[in-house]
TrEMBL record, chains A, B:
This is glutamate-5-semialdehyde dehydrogenase. GO terms for molecular function: glutamate-5-semialdehyde dehydrogenase activity; NADP binding. Pfam families: Aldedh. Pathway: Amino-acid biosynthesis; L-proline biosynthesis; L-glutamate 5-semialdehyde from L-glutamate: step 2/2. Its EC number is 1.2.1.41. Catalyzes the NADPH dependent reduction of L-gamma-glutamyl 5-phosphate into L-glutamate 5-semialdehyde and phosphate. The product spontaneously undergoes cyclization to form 1-pyrroline-5-carboxylate. It comes from Staphylotrichum tortipilum. NCBIfam families: PRK00197.1 (NF001221), proA (TIGR00407).
Amino acid sequence: MSLTNASPADAAKAAKSASHVLATLSADARNDALTAIHDGLVAARDDIFAANARDLELAAEAVAAGKLSQSLVARLDLAKKGKWDDMLKGILDVRDLEDPVGRVTLRTRLDNGLDLERVSCPIGVLLIIFEARPEVIANIAALAIKSGNAAILKGGKESTESFVAISRAISAALDKTQVPNGAIQLVTTRDVIPELLALDQYIDLAIPRGSSDLVRYIKNNTRIPVLGHADGICFTYLEQSADPAMAAEVIVDSKTNYPAACNSLEGLLVQDAALSTLLPPVAAALAAKGVELRCDPQSKAALKDVPGLNIVDATEADFSTEFLNLTLAVKTVSSLADAVAHINANSSHHTDCILTSSKELAEQFMSAVDSSGVYWNASTRFADGTRYGFGTEVGISTNKIHSRGPVGLEGLMIYKYKLRGHGQVSATYGEGAGRKPYLHQKLPLE
Amino acid sequence: MSLTNASPADAAKAAKSASHVLATLSADARNDALTAIHDGLVAARDDIFAANARDLELAAEAVAAGKLSQSLVARLDLAKKGKWDDMLKGILDVRDLEDPVGRVTLRTRLDNGLDLERVSCPIGVLLIIFEARPEVIANIAALAIKSGNAAILKGGKESTESFVAISRAISAALDKTQVPNGAIQLVTTRDVIPELLALDQYIDLAIPRGSSDLVRYIKNNTRIPVLGHADGICFTYLEQSADPAMAAEVIVDSKTNYPAACNSLEGLLVQDAALSTLLPPVAAALAAKGVELRCDPQSKAALKDVPGLNIVDATEADFSTEFLNLTLAVKTVSSLADAVAHINANSSHHTDCILTSSKELAEQFMSAVDSSGVYWNASTRFADGTRYGFGTEVGISTNKIHSRGPVGLEGLMIYKYKLRGHGQVSATYGEGAGRKPYLHQKLPLE
């Protein structure tokens, strides 16, 4: 890993060049590098914690001066229970995942002795912009090397000392491996994000990990493709045939399990025929967890006799708002088609759910809703790479191309076509006199 | 199909809304629409040819006034041998391809009664900007409907009368099918491209089909992801162990089979050890086809005794130029590593080839070259969706995400995750006391 005070352009150029070497390394060579990083971090523990203590000291001063929030300081602290060990374990977990490089996904015999093969390969250079959590840097370096991609890392400034110490350890570890040192570049100079975002000739994919403001800023200021999501505005449609106890349990989990997460519920769409039957027990269960309901007039009227609720009149904006706290918008709809139309127009296309006993309606909903996750009778909180069994999560994408939903290592891959011939030329083939037809014979992928 | 004189924003909004219906239609419903389009065009033949004649008349006047090139007029002419019949056949060919919608590519049991499925689905709304060839509109409408995507079409103004007549026939045909009329929007108002490129809230993917200037303009002026390639700068590395006759044949085909194509050869990299043995016969074979060679000093010296060559001193810029005619740059390199470095820095990452008898060097080259097509002993001209057996070609992409190389219907698809549960909530699962682990059991794909 290089610690760069060089210009962003030089860092990106070096990363590109390293990516061409990294792409040719064997799985063993990449895995060995992850073992070396793990061991190097273990050996450098004291230095890293000393650096982290300096970050924490500066942060404490900034909090005292009212320039930083206490919650950010908590995220900086590497000594927080489990954080350091989880970081180390995460590197080995990524190492032990199946190799994503070199998977053959298509094999076609164009003619005898002329075989086409589609093979997965790294994208090239990733730009990863993240906030102040210091353990993220090791996690990202592991993901990049495992997937054969070079990476340029730009972290939040409050963790600079920790980042430098961690990346020194990673750099020293990589020196003993086949992974070129330039493959992971830490950019520590300030205010370089606009410059980095202009380097689309070197950088193939940008992955912002942080607030929706950060993601939105990056999407709006680069030609580099961006993988991620700005908002998580998830809806659940409560259909009249849903089981009441199941509905209450799933909605409570979706809303209250971790309200600040992008896969938490923000809007409940209630079928009018379910207002008097299903909504009251659901509302009571939510109230018991301290949830404020922003109701439209119909749902408010349906709840007038339920004691202990915290109801506020909803505004139109509430039905497309990411609250990220214990607030839930409640809107009445007359049919599945209305629910789908509201979701397709107002959700962030992250994860949306239908609660119903009808398989037919559920399948209609899952077919018609244009979101990365479409759920039937399950909490929106399941939208997560670890929960999906991907082993690791690069992020969650609401994009409509490349990768969508929780993204694992597969999302960091593209493919190339390899054609192996014996001197064949295009003029031999095609239609017309004296031309040969193509065989186009599907071959097993092995 | 709607003929829009409405604003681009209204056209895009209507396409988005139609895309949500189109995404839920069965394969039969989409295929029936293609049959209807085919039959409608057959029935409207006379009207369409009359409209095309009006386009041709205006074009002839423009040529006479020196405002248009004769080659463009030839592209406008629907009566040109085979064009009309090929257009009709193309619609039925696309109809008969395997359905790309609803393919299950992952199934995981998260827990008993909680099954995750990844299913291919349309991207949504495509913006397709193309030049004046009038038959392209039917081809694109067929691709869009087959893949379940809505499309906004903006064609070159010289074919406006033909486009309007063809789209009237398509529109009348679609009225009798389940495909909503708004699914295909033809925008005929002028100068609307900048407005269309700003509509990233409605348009999911832009596909420019035309000159590299058009592609570059679009890539530089939109936040919508763009599928395509601006340049086709393809290289071949001639290694010392290559068979001389094979090398000459492949290089001649790559350069001269259709010099204006994006998959034609623009640069030949010759290993120094092959200068006196392989280059002379290759150069003679190229000269026999009228190819001008732009040589570096070493290759020029190696060819000084070969009669009948057309040699010009190369400039540095020649080694990264798309000539699109019978010109070939020839550069000497000392090793495979040098060849790979030159290609990775100067090719357009479209298709690059090695000519060698060494399997080991070939595999090294194909692993290290960062291009969508990497070939061993085969003409670069094979880089084409039809030749690869994809049935149809949307375009060729040099992007590093989503789709790369020749793109068939698969390149117009994304996926969604469907999760079918029985009321499971996230709080039940994970590590810690009383929590259940996830099963993460791989299920067969059907």
